[in-house]
Amino acid sequence: EGSYLFSKRTKIFVDNETQKPAAKYLSDLFEKAAGYPIFISETKGNATIIFTEDKSIKPEGYHLEISPKKINIKASDAAGYFYGIQTIRQLLPPSIETANSIEKNWSVPSIVINDTPRFSWRGMQMDFSRHFFSIDEVKTFLNYMALYKLNTYHMHLTDDQGWRIEIKKYPLLTEKGAWRVESSHDITCNELAKTDPSFIIDEQHYHNREGQRMYGGFFTQEQIKEIITYAAERQIEVIPEIDMPGHLKSAIDNYPYLSCTNEAGWGELFSSPACLGKETTYEFTKDILAEIVDLFPSKYVHIGGDEVNIESWKKCPLCQKAIKDHHLKNEHELQSFFNRDIETFLNSKGKRLLGWDEIVEGGLSKDGTMMWWRNWAPTMRDIAAKHGNDMIITPCFEYYFDAKHEATPFEKVYQYEPIPENFTKEQAKHILGIQANLWSEMIPNFKRLQFQAFPRFLALAETSWTSKEDKNYDDFQKRMNLQYKRLEALNIQYHIPPVTGLKDKVAFLD
Ligand code: ACM
Ligand code: ZN
User: Fold this and answer.
1) Is the C-beta atom of 338 inside 6 A of ligand 1?
2) 53 in contact with ligand 1, CB cutoff 6 A
3) What does residue 142 show for φ and ψ, rounded to 5 degrees?
4) CB neighbours of 77 closer than 8 A, spacing ≥ 6?
5) Alpha-carbon distance 127 to 134, whole Å?
């Protein structure tokens, strides 16, 4: 019964360092929305919000008790305190998300919550290559992740259509590789933009270069550090992806000795990959990864590995010689040979290899971790689990938020169960968690990105956090109706799920 009312006199008591970032987050929210910060004190005195360490609580979990007089938050780690605060944030009026609010009733209901996440990997991916996003947009997105307790931000930093991270040893990657005149996706976006302005390509990424209007941009290593710090303050780990040996055209364009034919190009579906019969490919990729591992504190480094045009290797005498010399059966095994070499390098730097599920095809190493994306290759999960490898579930048909809402509706995202039915308890332990991806071919600006992500983002968040038994779609829909107000307060342009039960036309009369 009753509620706790925040005021200018509210004080937070913290008794150790791991509690401070969470306390500061709440204080900053109030400073922006209510016009006053919440005072943080290291003496209990008359503090009414009390942080207490409780080592019996699981990692990232928290215990929250709100009564009219006091708020108690218990946890065993910084993430747990942070998520306790995020729950308080969700219980506050949506106007807590706005600046200079006129709201006076900053209250939260009396409640007791014991909460821990189902999965330790609760991820979102953004693609910076096909279309680029600014550092401010990245920070805004990290704020959405914090609010809904997602903890892993996967940055797809390189691809055929643009190289987006400074690499000091190979300056052409960004001097040239970060810029283009017009991609095939740009042409499609421009065509769609004629009738739908949400497809207008963001003007901020056009620059005059060498007398031409070019699209592009990249993050400097200093900016990457800024992103990592900002994410860490929100209990989010940043995972870099440098896609290899395919999806590498923006590098091959500028360092053409990398390919089998000494030039960049396209196969039937995918770009020509790096040649795996040349020592220079191994040196080049490891030089890049050496800078990446120095920059990113994450345990995992994603090396892509998806959609390689192996026809290039079939025709290349050097690749064929490598297959013969290393007693490999085919081109898939050649790719796994490359992956193992890269993995040995990453392991020597204290890192673990992560790749798309194609890394399974030519044989997995002991510690490689797979991101399962191909619904049409379900056995990749079984092979990985049987072999003892960890995986993250990010299926194309359910968790690709660049897909149209009609194709991958909100309900489909919510109802998807990430652990396959045939998995034993032991096998299920190899599923670290789930992730949704925002490939940006058809996402040319941040507003369009919001529209693709929301409200599906919340369905993913609930699946990542809530146990299978506790999920309930009807209940979730009711709670979503409250969340739309919050999304509006955050100025998020979300998709409105269609009215169900109607067939041909939906008319909004008011
Ligand atoms: C992918 O969608 N190519 C991983
Ligand atoms: Zn080759």
Assistant:
1) no
2) no
3) -60, -30
4) 18, 59, 60
5) 12
Average pLDDT, the chain: 96
Q: Exactly one of 103, 226, 233, 307 is catalytic; name it.
A: 307
Phi then psi for 194, rounded to 5 degrees?
-60, -35
Contact 178, 163 (CB under 8 A): yes
Q: Which residues contact 61 (CB under 8 A, 6 or more apart)?
A: 75, 76, 80, 83, 114, 115, 116, 117
pTM: 0.96
Ligand 1 in reach of 399 Cβ (< 6 A): no
Residues in Cβ contact with 366 at an 8 Å cutoff, skipping those fewer than 6 apart: 388, 389
Q: Is the pLDDT of residue 99 over 70?
A: yes
Q: Residue 314 CA: which ligand is closest?
A: 2
Residue (of 337, 343, 327, 334) closest to 293 by Cα position: 343
Phi, psi (deg, nearest 5) at residue 114: -115, 125
Please indicate whether residue 343 is annotated as part of the active site: no
Of the CA atoms within 13 Å of residue 245, those in its CB half-sphere come to 32
Q: Is 278 helix (H, G, I), strand (E, B) or coil?
A: coil
Q: Closest Cα to residue 400, out of 375, 433, 419, 369?
A: 375
What one-character DSSP code corresponds to residue 200? P
The predicted-structure confidence for 261-284, as pLDDT tens digits, reads as follows 999 999 999 999 999 999 999 999
CA–CA dist 230, 142 (Å, integer):
8
d(CA 457, CA 124): 9
Residue-level pLDDT at 510: 67
Ligand 1 centroid vs 306 CA: distance in angstroms? 6
CA-derived radius of gyration, the chain: 24
Q: How far apart are CA 326 and CA 306, in angstroms?
A: 22
Question: With a 6 A CB cut-off, is 179 part of the ligand 1 pocket?
Answer: no
DSSP run (H or E) holding 232: helix 221-232
| Coil, helix or strand at residue 157 | coil
99-131 residues labelled b (16+ CB within 10 A) or e (exposed): eebeeeebbbeeeeeebbbbbebbbbbbbbbbb
307 is catalytic: yes
Q: 215-272: per-residue pLDDT in tens?
A: 999 999 999 999 999 999 999 999 999 999 999 999 999 999 999 999 999 999 999 9
- Which of 146, 119, 150 has its CA nearest to residue 433? 119
pLDDT tens column, 104-152: 999 999 999 999 999 999 999 999 999 999 999 999 999 999 999 999 9
Is there a catalytic annotation at residue 196? no
Query: Among residues 159, 166, 186, 390, which one is catalytic?
Result: 159
